[in-house]
């Protein structure tokens, strides 16, 4: 998960001062900030080129001054784009170019440039013919605590605030403000007063993975009526790699600024950035210094939240789809599939859409799972849909830069069970196409890859009343015998050993989907039509004991038949003590409700996380649905 960091060049914002009291003029400051933020794009150009030669530490590329390349420009080493292809029409929906490394231009000529390698992925060696271009996604910038001005009347904090605000509004940048830095410092075990030390920056950036850091410095010019506004451009090694400055007249006055100047006490200026973060950043808020800030920072340390998704989240899966060693996230609505890079705690821009699979508007997605069942080094996407009265399974895999359908079948529902300490298990259960019978038919069985097809193998050793939905397997006693867990019709978890009931929980309501075939009535009391959500188990390194991780959706009423109206949700962790699962943790209550979840090491840091698909707005037919992915560290 951790990469070496890019050293890049950044600039700063000019400022306008209120005459007489030297108060910063906010309207003019914002205008200057926006203009200079736009100028910063020249250091991160959107170009396409090629490596033409590599000589010692120098990399020669076919981009130069005539392509608007400047000394210090950052260029990405890219792998050819992964095309996302519609499984039915074959239409290319988009492409995803993988970032292999970063180059920094050290000398720009008319038709070519010389660059040096800042970092590359493990196993990547820069060679002639490789593609170079603009850094994909947003450029990540960490804002260090502001340096107070020598002139106490100059409000350096307002300069920093304008820097953050302007860069946040620019779609090219992601800004880690002081609250983000302090949260990362807490995670790294670094004291607040050591935040800007060289060794501390390196540790903090293993979490943030910022491209570079900025630090504001504002000073009056001796014997002049001008102010020098400067930002130092720092690498994570605390090395200054450049600066941008601008002279501003003191006499420039704002059109609308009536607030008094900030108190000129240097001690206040040192502490104020923690408070100012509450203005510029979304929740969780950072409290003012006079109040304890420990709890909000711990919340930010444990949680990662995606931006709002304009969809009603339905199903979720996580796995390495491209074989590059990094996990991707597959999330679906009832009829669409979207693929994202995984989210990273402390990194705001890490969750990024890389493709969509569309064309399932006439279907209803019953399940999606991800696993490398055919053992070729990259995971397949197993998609089960309901078409009128029967079910279809389609399997997609990344080949030659595209996600292609490699196998399909009808009349089966498939799932992948992820078992702690064991390989993922593909299971399936037949379905019927006659409305005279229940949708699911026969026993749940294991499936395997025979080199050409996913074929049915032996039936699972589970009670006959269990079906494929709401089912899990795990060797909870670590004695070589797998137990089966299943949601009963009252939303209780039942644990069976050799088909004998061993333990049963109280009721915890998962997200339930009614499987309604064409021609069937939407009967909410038909318990056999309720497809319950997954059950996740994991082991924590602290004691290696088995944990059961459940979600619990909370509701106060139901207004439409078949449509539960939830008013919150939470997740719970239970520890196996040899006889039963005992509750050891309950999360805070979330505002949205959880439709699906996965317990996995999503960022491959050898610690388990829970990944939640949460609907914030989805049951109002007249408004755009909103969902969010939330990652919570379990260790």
Automatic annotation (TrEMBL):
Biased composition annotated in UniProt, kind: Pro residues: 281-291
Region span, Disordered: 277-298
Keywords, alphabetical: Integrin, Signal
SUPFAM superfamilies: Integrin alpha N-terminal domain (SSF69318)
Domain of life, per lineage: Bacteria
Any GO BP annotation: integrin-mediated signaling pathway
Pfam families: FG-GAP_3 (PF13517)
Name of protein: Integrin-like repeat protein
């Amino acid at each position: 998960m951790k990469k070496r960091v890019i050293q890049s060049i950044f600039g700063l914002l000019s400022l306008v001062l209120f005459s007489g009291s030297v108060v910063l003029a906010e309207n003019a400051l914002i205008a200057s900030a926006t203009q200079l933020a736009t100028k910063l794009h020249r250091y991160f150009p959107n170009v396409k080129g090629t490596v033409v030669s590599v000589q010692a530490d120098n990399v020669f590329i076919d981009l130069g001054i005539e392509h608007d390349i400047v000394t210090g420009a950052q260029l990405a080493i890219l792998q050819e784009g992964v095309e996302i292809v519609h499984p039915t029409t074959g239409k290319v929906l988009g492409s995803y170019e993988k970032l292999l490394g970063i180059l920094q231009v050290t000398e720009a000529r008319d038709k070519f440039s010389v660059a040096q390698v800042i970092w590359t992925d493990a196993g990547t060696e820069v060679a002639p013919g490789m593609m170079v271009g603009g850094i994909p996604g947003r450029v990540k910038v960490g804002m260090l605590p502001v340096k107070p001005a020598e002139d106490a009347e100059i409000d350096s904090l307002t300069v920093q605030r304008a820097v953050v605000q302007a860069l946040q509004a620019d779609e090219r940048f992601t800004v880690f403000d002081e609250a983000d830095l302090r949260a990362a410092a807490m995670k790294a075990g670094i004291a607040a007063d050591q935040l800007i030390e060289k060794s501390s920056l390196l540790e903090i950036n293993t979490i943030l993975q910022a491209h570079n850091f900025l630090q504001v410095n504002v000073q009056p010019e001796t014997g002049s009526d001008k102010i020098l506004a400067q930002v130092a451009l720092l690498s994570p090694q605390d090395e200054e790699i450049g600066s941008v400055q601008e002279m501003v007249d003191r006499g420039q006055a704002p059109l609308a600024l009536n607030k008094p100047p900030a108190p000129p006490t240097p001690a206040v200026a040192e502490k104020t950035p923690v408070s100012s973060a509450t203005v510029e950043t979304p929740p969780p808020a950072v409290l003012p210094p006079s109040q304890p800030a420990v709890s909000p920072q711990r919340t930010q340390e444990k949680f990662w939240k995606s931006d709002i998704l304009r969809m009603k989240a339905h199903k979720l899966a996580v796995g390495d789809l491209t074989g590059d060693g990094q996990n991707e996230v597959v999330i679906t609505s009832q009829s669409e599939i979207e693929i994202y890079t995984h989210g990273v705690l402390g990194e705001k821009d890490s969750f990024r859409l890389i493709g969509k699979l569309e064309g399932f508007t006439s279907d209803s997605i019953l399940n999606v799972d991800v696993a490398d069942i055919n053992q070729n080094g990259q995971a397949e996407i197993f998609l089960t849909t309901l078409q009128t009265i029967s079910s279809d399974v389609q399997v997609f895999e990344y080949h030659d830069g595209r996600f292609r359908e490699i196998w399909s079948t009808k009349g089966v529902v498939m799932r992948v069970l992820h078992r702690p300490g064991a390989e993922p298990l593909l299971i399936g259960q037949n379905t019927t196409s006659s409305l005279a019978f229940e949708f699911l038919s026969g026993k749940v069985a294991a499936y395997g890859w025979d080199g050409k097809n996913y074929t049915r193998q032996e039936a699972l050793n589970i009670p006959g009343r269990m079906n494929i939905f709401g089912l899990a397997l795990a060797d909870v006693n670590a004695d070589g015998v797998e137990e089966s867990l299943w949601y009963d019709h009252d939303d209780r978890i039942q644990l069976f050993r050799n088909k004998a009931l061993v333990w049963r929980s109280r009721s915890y309501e998962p997200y339930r989907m009614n499987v309604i075939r064409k021609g069937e009535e939407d009967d909410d009391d038909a318990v056999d039509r309720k497809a319950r959500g997954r059950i996740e188990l994991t082991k924590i390194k602290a004691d290696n004991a088995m944990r059961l991780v459940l979600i619990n959706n909370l509701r106060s009423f139901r207004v439409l038949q078949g449509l539960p109206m939830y008013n919150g949700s939470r997740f719970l962790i239970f520890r196996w003590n040899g006889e039963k699962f005992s509750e050891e943790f309950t999360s805070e209550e979330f505002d949205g409700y959880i439709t699906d979840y996965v317990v996995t090491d999503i960022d491959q840091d050898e610690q388990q996380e829970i990944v939640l698909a949460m609907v914030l707005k989805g049951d109002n037919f007249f408004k755009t649905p909103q969902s969010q992915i939330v990652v919570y560290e379990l260790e």
